[in-house]
Structure formats: structure tokens, C-alpha cells
């Protein structure tokens, strides 16, 4: 957990070590983090990280609680045929551009 006193924000980090059965790995990978406003404890956003089988971040998805989520795909690289570690889905084409998608 990290607290930013000046911005009144608290970030809670969640790693695959917390639940290896759920995430299918125990490599100390950041799976998601949640940002809260410290005064009211209101959740502001959640950001998820999706990895390739090689352990590289493939996709970062942020959902702001009061808006549409932002999906950021990282620059193109080789995808492992087994697919996406975090979601268990089959591999999707990698987009180099940032897109807005409704979650």
C-alpha cells in the first residue's frame, strides 16, 4: 500500500502471490491496483495488468469509477500461443494505439 498525503490518495497493490490458484502463477507479478480517496475511502479507479506467458505486460486496463475505462496495449511483440495469463483467454491481435473501450 502507498499513501500520497498531498493528493489524498491511497493505492493498494495486489500481486499473484496473494492467490496463486486464481492467477495461475506465483512470480510476484502485479495483477491489479486500486486507488482510493483517503478522506472518504471512495474507490477512484482500478487498474488490471495482463501478461504474456513469458511474463511481459501485454495489456493495461484502467476503470475510473466515474467514466469509461481506458485500454492501453503495449507496443507489438511476439505473443505466446498459450494466450493471456491473467484472463486465460486465447491470444488477441496486439494494437499499438491506445483505444477507449466500454468495460
Provide an overview of this structure:
The structure is a single chain. With 103 residues, the chain is mainly beta. The protein has one domain: Lipocalin. The chain is 4% helix and 40% strand. The chain has one helix at 20-23; strands at residues 2-4, 9-15, 30-37, 43-51, 57-64, 70-73, 99-100. The protein has a 7-stranded antiparallel sheet, with no helix packed on it. Strand 3 and strand 4 (43-51) form a beta hairpin. The protein is globular. The two termini are 26 Å apart.
Determine the fraction of residues in helical runs and give it as a percent range: under 10%
Going by helix content, strand content and strand pairing, the class is: mainly beta
* Biggest β-sheet description: 7 strands, antiparallel
CATH architecture annotation: Beta Barrel
Distance between the ends:
26 Å
Gyration radius (Cα, Å) is: 15 Å
- Number of helical elements: 1
Strand content: 35-45%
Provide the fold topology.
Layout: E1 2-4, E2 9-15, H1 20-23, E3 30-37, E4 43-51, E5 57-64, E6 70-73, E7 99-100
Summarize the structure.
The protein has 103 residues and is mainly β. The protein has one helix and seven strands, in the order E-E-H-E-E-E-E-E. The protein has a seven-stranded antiparallel β-sheet, with no helix packed on it.
From the structure above, extract its key features.
single chain, 40% strand, seven-stranded antiparallel beta sheet, mainly beta, 7 strands, 103 residues, globular, 4% helix, Lipocalin
Amino acid at each position: 500500500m502507498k499513501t500520497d498525503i498531498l493528493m489524498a490518495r491511497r493505492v493498494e497493490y495486489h500481486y499473484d502471490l496473494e492467490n496463486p490458484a486464481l492467477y495461475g502463477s506465483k512470480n510476484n507479478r502485479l495483477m491489479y491496483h486500486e486507488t482510493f480517496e483517503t478522506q472518504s475511502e471512495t474507490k477512484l479507479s482500478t487498474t488490471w495488468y495482463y501478461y504474456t506467458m513469458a511474463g511481459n505486460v501485454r495489456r493495461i486496463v484502467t476503470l475510473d469509477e466515474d467514466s469509461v475505462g481506458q485500454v492501453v496495449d503495449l507496443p507489438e511483440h511476439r505473443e505466446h500461443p498459450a494466450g493471456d495469463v491473467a484472463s486465460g483467454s486465447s491470444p488477441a491481435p496486439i494494437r499499438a494505439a491506445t483505444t477507449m473501450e466500454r468495460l
